[in-house]
Write a structure and sequence with these properties.
This protein is an alpha/beta fold. It has one domain (28-268): Rossmann fold, CATH 3.40.50. It has helices spanning 17-20, 43-47, 87-98, 109-124, 131-149, 187-196, 259-268; strands spanning 33-37, 54-58, 77-81, 103-107, 157-162, 164-165, 182-183, 199-207, 223-228, 238-239, 250-252. α5 (131-149) runs parallel beside α6 (187-196). The longest helix has 19 residues, at 131-149. It starts with 16 loop residues before the first helix and ends in a 20-residue tail after the last helix.
């Protein structure tokens, strides 16, 4: 029996360079987050809202207590205290091999930089840091940031917590010409971290306007924890998201744990600006 010939051509799978080309609609960027701000402004609280199980690497911060909540289930958040700089490599290997965690929080990079400097001084058998040694420390810090950033390829959300810095320079001699507030790290390390992050936000406290009350009645000011995300001329912020999708100037830090959900909505372009209900004015009847 003769085979029938068809005009359909068999589709061959692309090879080489063509096999590496992907359609943009099929690419999902990893959620790499940098949180920076002063102590007590809600950085750890925001980080604790990320997917569970979660591992927090406590680097001389001792602030993990703020990650606790009434709804926290045993086993959701684990904590390991850093003993030395080389621990960061061992912890990374463990996280990647164990595949237990959905998010990893480094709390915080500013303290890790001190560990890095000490590590370099021990290697060089020196008591003081030189320009060359700062360069070595910078290299180690970038290596750690890159390693933990790459955990996103394993389906793990990395969160970098950093103290804030309002003055320029931290050992490298570089000076900022434009005043800005950003992560408290060596300039080259801060630049590397910001480039590696998809989300960069600044945490701060905001005093809400006092409501009018009866004379003689004392009202305590209400403090709101906020996470600054929208474009700002002075604070380093960044949210890589779908074009033309809205990004709020800030997110109010809600202790109920929906911070991460709001962030995902912003990134995917599903975020909707809250609407303020308008009071309907009553029309006055005009008597004839």
């Amino acid at each position: 029996m003769k085979k029938r010939h068809t005009n359909q051509k068999s589709e061959s799978k692309p090879t080489g360079i063509e096999a590496r080309i992907k359609d943009l609609t099929e690419i999902n960027m990893p959620m790499v987050t940098t949180l920076y701000g002063r102590a007590g402004t809600g950085k750890t609280t925001i980080a604790s809202s990320y997917p569970k199980p979660q591992l927090i690497i406590d680097i001389k911060d001792k602030g993990t207590e703020s990650a606790k909540s009434k709804n926290l289930v045993k086993g959701d958040i684990k904590v390991i205290e850093l003993e030395n700089f080389e621990d960061m490599y061992d912890i990374y290997d463990y996280i990647k091999a164990s595949k237990k965690y959905k998010s990893v929080v480094i709390d915080h990079l500013t303290s890790l930089q001190e560990y890095s400097n000490q590590y370099v001084k021990e290697q060089e058998n020196k008591d003081q840091m030189s320009q060359r040694m700062f360069g070595m420390s910078s290299g180690y810090m970038k290596e750690i940031i890159q390693l933990y950033k790459d955990l996103a390829d394993e389906g793990i959300d990395p969160v970098f917590i950093v103290q804030d810095r309002t003055t320029s320079g931290d050992g490298e001699g570089d000076e900022q010409l434009i005043p800005e507030v950003g992560p408290a790290l060596m300039p080259s390390v801060a630049t590397f971290l910001c480039a590696a992050s998809r989300i960069i936000g600044n945490t701060y406290l905001y005093e809400l306007p006092m409501k009018k009350v009866k004379p003689g009645v004392k009202v305590k000011p209400t403090i709101e924890f906020r996470w600054r995300l929208g474009p700002n001329p002075y604070y380093i912020t960044k949210v890589t998201r779908v074009q033309e999708s809205p990004c709020p100037a800030y997110i109010a830090v809600d202790l109920q744990g929906n911070i991460y959900d709001q962030l995902v909505a912003i990134v995917k372009g599903d975020y909707k600006e809250p609407t303020v209900g308008r009071m309907k004015k009553k029309k006055k009847r005009i008597r004839k």
